[in-house]
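call fold(seq) -> tokens
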Amino acid sequence: MGRVSQAQARENRERVVRTASRLFREQGTHISVADLMKASGLTHGGFYKQFASKEALIDEATAHAFGELAQRREAALERAAEQGVEQGAAAQRALIDAYLSVEHRDNAADGCPTAALAHDMAREPGADGAHRVYTEGVRDFAGWLATDDEDGIARLCTMLGALVLARATKDSPLSEEILAAARAALTEAG
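ret:
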């Protein structure tokens, strides 16, 4: 089999990062390189041509996931501006509603990296770059949720805790009660 072009190599790398970002949020960072490459439609042997280590991929995939989160926040701001409503409050309300929804609960792969990767970041040895990216992402997310009265950390903790509990109780009515209670608490207080 011949060598791939530089453009194809970049495309393959981006595909692996996107796939890893989704799979890490859905299944955790413990997924094997072989399974990751298979899900990407590439061979296991090609991994080390693209990445120095799995930790390097975790770093990039974490950054990619937080980049997607930032894009969603920006889109919410643009929608609010188009509707002519106060950008901050309307965009925050839309994000809270989407974050604390059944759809987000049931779709970790495309969901928030803050909730999906928290467990792995607490336990992943040697993922210094990912820890830095994760910490910055959490700080940025909390800042985006800030109000005139608070820095956003309590709001983020409420959202994150509610989502994690809702996912853990998914097959019971309690799951949707948790989401509804957190949404009400955050939107009444905000």
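The mean pLDDT is 88.
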